[in-house]
Design brief:
globular, six-stranded parallel sheet, 6 strands, alpha/beta
């Protein structure tokens, strides 16, 4: 079984709710995942895992949340070749750069050598209706894509 980690930052609870639903999907698929808040861990923790999921809300005009800044900078020191990864997050279409933090995380993981195995999951504010199932499916699909890592 692959070792999976999910690291996220949430201000209003939207990305936290996404994380919980994704975790539910991972567990439905028989996976186990370590869950951490971005501000509570160092980027080098990723080296201990086969599968990496990062989730963030977008701050201001398309910026990473403060909770992710040190973690993001520390990614520059890592070689993530052989790691499978996916990103998710919430945003607000009121802003020109919808969920841009998700794109920043994806670009950084890919730059450091991680294989991006799922399209990013971006939601307007909090998950509702079918989006709740989409989050669970994201978790299930992540497990399915990391089997045999």
């Amino acid at each position: 079984m692959s070792k999976l980690i999910l690291i996220y930052a949430s201000m209003t609870g939207n990305t936290e709710e996404m994380s919980e639903l994704i975790t539910s999907g991972i567990q439905e698929a028989g996976g186990e995942v370590t869950i951490k808040l971005a501000e509570d861990c160092d980027a080098d923790l990723l080296l201990d895992y086969d599968g990496i999921m990062l989730g963030a809300y977008t701050w201001g005009d398309g910026e990473l949340p403060d909770e992710f800044l040190d973690f993001y900078d520390d990614l520059d020191e890592l070689d993530l070749k052989g790691k499978k990864a996916a990103v998710f997050g919430s945003g607000d279409t009121v802003y020109e750069q919808f969920a841009k933090a998700v794109d920043l995380l994806q670009e950084k993981l890919a730059e450091r050598g991680a294989e991006m195995i799922l399209e990013p999951l971006k939601l307007e504010l909090n998950p509702s209706g079918d989006e709740r199932e989409n989050c669970r499916a994201f978790g299930r699909n992540f497990v399915g894509s990391t089997v045999g890592v």
